């Protein structure tokens, strides 16, 4: 059986989009970055930990589990989900007019083996004014999303352009995920 170790509605929708069948096995882990932890190491560690926690909670020797993590990287800083509207405002101010990177890691684990990959997409916001930032926060959309925006929702209005995988920004890089699933004999396009 194939399990998605995620509470993210985006990841459910993205996997369903490419015709993958799965059961949900969401987990909660500590998402605090280690001191001076590099972005790629951070997202790969969390994806692996989410998948490992789900695998350990399942009574299924045949289980294959997918864990994933998405973070926004601005310079040296890792922007995760905001913990308040003030935090969201601060992140959106910093992202205004700036190129940044979105990293998503995907870990596939079974009791026999594991593979972890990560993908980076560059996103460039146009310059935002305070009124726009406030109006966007008032929609409620930023609060459960890394970097305080959702490119697939109303946040699309903030984005000037991207370079790289779009689905990676939303929460799962589909091309690379399909390749990983193939390695574990999980069918896509079903
Ligand atoms: C940048 C960006 C992030 N996101 C979302 C994807 C992720 O759900 C979320 C980042 O938080 P994550 O910790 O990666 O995921 P999650 O807590 O939502 O779910 P789980 O850990 O159970 O898998 O931000 C968007 O939906 N759109 C975007 O444009």
From TrEMBL:
<comment type="function">
    <text>Nucleoside triphosphate pyrophosphatase that hydrolyzes dTTP and UTP. May have a dual role in cell division arrest and in preventing the incorporation of modified nucleotides into cellular nucleic acids.</text>
</comment>
<dbReference type="InterPro" id="IPR003697">
    <property type="entry name" value="Maf-like"/>
</dbReference>
<protein>
    <recommendedName>
        <fullName>dTTP/UTP pyrophosphatase</fullName>
        <ecNumber>3.6.1.9</ecNumber>
    </recommendedName>
</protein>
<feature type="site" description="Important for substrate specificity">
    <location>
        <position position="152"/>
    </location>
</feature>
<comment type="similarity">
    <text>Belongs to the Maf family. YhdE subfamily.</text>
</comment>
<feature type="site" description="Important for substrate specificity">
    <location>
        <position position="10"/>
    </location>
</feature>
<dbReference type="GO" id="GO:0016787">
    <property type="term" value="F:hydrolase activity"/>
</dbReference>
<feature type="active site" description="Proton acceptor">
    <location>
        <position position="69"/>
    </location>
</feature>
<keyword id="KW-0963">Cytoplasm</keyword>
<keyword id="KW-0378">Hydrolase</keyword>
<dbReference type="InterPro" id="IPR029001">
    <property type="entry name" value="ITPase-like_fam"/>
</dbReference>
<feature type="site" description="Important for substrate specificity">
    <location>
        <position position="70"/>
    </location>
</feature>
<keyword id="KW-0546">Nucleotide metabolism</keyword>
<dbReference type="Pfam" id="PF02545">
    <property type="entry name" value="Maf"/>
</dbReference>
């Amino acid at each position: 059986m194939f399990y998605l170790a995620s509470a993210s509605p985006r990841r459910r929708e993205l996997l369903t989009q490419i015709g993958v069948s799965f059961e949900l096995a969401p987990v909660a882990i500590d998402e605090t970055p280690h001191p001076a932890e590099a972005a790629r190491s951070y997202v790969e560690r969390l994806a692996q930990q989410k998948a490992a926690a789900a695998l350990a909670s399942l009574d299924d020797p045949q289980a294959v589990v997918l864990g994933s993590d998405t973070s926004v990287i601005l310079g040296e800083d890792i922007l995760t989900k905001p913990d308040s509207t003030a935090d969201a405002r601060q992140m959106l101010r910093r992202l205004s007019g700036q190129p940044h990177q979105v990293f998503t890691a995907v870990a596939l684990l079974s009791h026999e083996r594991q593979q972890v990959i990560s993908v980076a997409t560059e996103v460039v916001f146009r310059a935002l004014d305070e009124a726009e930032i406030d109006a966007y926060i008032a929609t409620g959309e930023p609060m459960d999303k890394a970097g305080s925006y959702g490119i697939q929702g109303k946040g699309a209005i903030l984005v000037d352009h991207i370079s790289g995988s779009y689905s990676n920004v939303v929460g799962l890089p589909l091309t690379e995920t399909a390749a990983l699933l193939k390695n574990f004999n999980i069918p896509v396009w079903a």
